[in-house]
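Researcher: Batch entry, complex prediction.
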Amino acid sequence: MPTFVYMTRCDGCGHCVDICPSDIMHIDKTYRRAVNIEPNMCWECYSCVKACPQHAIDVRGYADFAPLGHSVRVRREEEKGTISWRIKFRDGRQKDFVSPITTKPWGSAIPRLAELPAPSEEQVKSQHLVYEPDALNVEEGLPTIDKSRFKQGVYY
Amino acid sequence: MLTDNPFAEISASMSPTVMKTYVVIMILLVAGGTLFDVIHKKSARYFFENWKKSKNRGTQPVGGGRVVGLAIQTLAVDVLASGEFCNARRRVAHLLTMHGFLLYVVTTAIMVFGYPTPAVPTPGIVPFLWHLGALMVCVGGYWFWFFIRADVAAEGNSPLRFMRADLFILSLLASVTLALVWSAVQAGGASWSGAVFGLYAIATAALFGSVPWSKFAHMFFKPAAALHKRVAEADGSMDNLPPPADAPATFGLGIKREAPRHY
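Model: C-alpha cells for the complex:
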C-alpha cells in the first residue's frame, strides 16, 4: 500500500518532495504538510520514508507479503552510513536489522534510469506491459502542469 | 506613542464595558472554536488512542512523575523555544510570531481590564510591550508570508493566491498591522482613527472567530504530539522505529546537507 504522512509529525520541510522518484509527494496547500497526491503511482520505494527527518511517513505493506497487523519502520542515518529496520508482527515477534546503506564506494553505481533504453515493441506487447501505457491513464486521468510556469531550479 | 495606552484614549468614544465584552467574546470564540475543532476532527480521540497504543507497545514503564518531567521538557524546548523546527529561519520566524502574539494578547487584556480609562494611569511598560509584541508579529509574520511559507509557487501557482489555508496568517497580520496603524493614527489626532479601529476590530474578530477553519488549533495539538513523541522515546516504543544505530558518524550529511528546494 502506498505511503501516507502522519500530519502531526510532519513539519512541511520538503525532503520527501525533493526525493520522490514518482513526483507524487507534494505539500498540501491547506495543511502545509506533505501528502501523497497519487497513491496509484506510488512505487513504494521507501525513498520518502527514509528521507523524512521527522520519521513522519509510513508505508502499509500489501497483505500478500506483509501479514495483517505488522509494522515495518526504517531509520536511515547517512552520517553513520547505516540503515536500520524494525519489523513487528501481530503475534509480538520483532525483527531488527542494521545494514550499511551501501557496500560500494559512495558516489558509484548510482542508477540513471533516464539513460536506460525504452522498452522495445516486443516488450511492450508482452504480458508484463500489455496494459501500459493506456491503463496508467496518464493522458486523461492525471493533472498536467505547464512546466514553463515553474520557478528557476525546479525540475520535474 | 509607544507608551500611550490606545484603549484608554478611545474610551471617550467607546465604552470600556463594550471593549471588555468584546475581549470576553473573543476568548469564548477561541475556546469554543478549539473545542469544536478538536471534536470535529476527532484529534483528542486520536491522541488518546495513540497514547494507549504506544503504552501497550512500550518496553519500559514511564511513571507519572517522569511524564510530568517530560511535559516540562516539552513546554520548555518544543513549545517556548519552538524546538521541533529543523529549519533555522522558520524557527526564528515562529518564535517572533508566537512570543509577539502572546505579549500582544496579554497586554491587550491588561490594558482593557486593568487600565480602561485615562483616570487610571497606565504604566508605560504595558503599552510599550503591546507595541513591541505587535511589531514582533509583523516582522515574523510578513517574513514568513513572503519568504518562508511552503512554496506553492513552485507548482505554478501565483504567490498572491489566497486560499482558506492562509486565513490564520492573514487575519493575524491584518489584526496586528491595523492595531499599530490605529495606535499611530490615534496618537496623531486624526479624525478617521475611529474607522481604523473599526477595521482592527473586524480583523481581530475574523482571527478569533475563524478558529475552526484555520491553523489556530495547532497550538494545542502540536505540543500534545511533541509530548507523545518524548514519552514514546522514554518508554522504548519509539513508534515502532528501530533505535539509532551504534556506529560512528564518519560520513557526511548526505541528503541533509542542503535544504530541499528543487520542487
